Amino acid sequence: MQTINSRDVRSNLITRVKIDGVPIVLIRQDGKVHAFSALCPHALGNLARGDLYNGELECPEHGWRFDIASGQSVYPEPGKYCLLGYEVHEMDGVVEVRPPNDPGDT
C-alpha cells in the first residue's frame, strides 16, 4: 500500500506516483480520488501525459478515452478496454492506494 498527501491530488489534474516501481495515475473528480495504471491498455501509452476532458482520460498515443469513474473505454470503441484500477481510500488528509491482489494489513 502507498500513501499520498491529499493536497497532492488536486481536482481535474493527473498526479503520477509509483507503487513498488509501477507508475500510477491519480485523478480527483467530484471530490473522489481514482487510481489507475499509467499504461494505456490499448497501446501502452503513458497516461500520465494524457489529457482530461469532461470526466474522461485521453491517452496521448492514439486518443483512446477512458471514463474516470469506471475505467472503461468510451472512445473510439466503448467498453473494449478497461484501465487497471487500484483501490483507493482517503481519510484524515491521506490517500491510500492499494495495488490489485494486495492483502493489506489483515
Structure description:
This protein starts with a strand and ends in an 8-residue tail after the last strand. The radius of gyration is 13 Å and the shape is globular. The chain is 0% helix and 45% strand. The strands form 2 sheets. It has a 6-stranded antiparallel beta sheet, with no helix packed on it. A 4-stranded antiparallel beta sheet has the order 5-6-7-8, with no helix packed on it. The chain has strands at 2-5, 14-19, 22-29, 32-37, 51-53, 56-58, 65-67, 73-75, 85-91, 94-98. The protein has a single domain, classed as Rieske [2Fe-2S] iron-sulphur domain (Rieske Iron-sulfur Protein), CATH 2.102.10. The chain is mainly β and 106 residues long. It contains no helices and 10 strands.
Number of strands: 10
Q: SSE order in H/E notation?
A: EEEEEEEEEE
| Beta-strand share of residues | over 45%
**What share of residues is helical?**
under 10%
Return the structural class.
Answer: mainly beta
So, CATH architecture? 3-layer Sandwich
Question: Unreliable runs, pLDDT <50, ≥5 residues?
Answer: none
Number of domains: 1
Any idea of the CATH class? Mainly Beta
Biggest pleated sheet: 6 strands, antiparallel
According to CATH, the fold-level topology is: Rieske Iron-sulfur Protein
The pLDDT mean sits at 91
Instruction: Using the CA coordinates, give the radius of gyration.
Output: 13 Å
Span between termini = 12 Å
How would you write the strand order of the largest sheet?
1-10-9-4-3-2
Give me the number of helical elements: 0
CATH superfamily label: Rieske [2Fe-2S] iron-sulphur domain
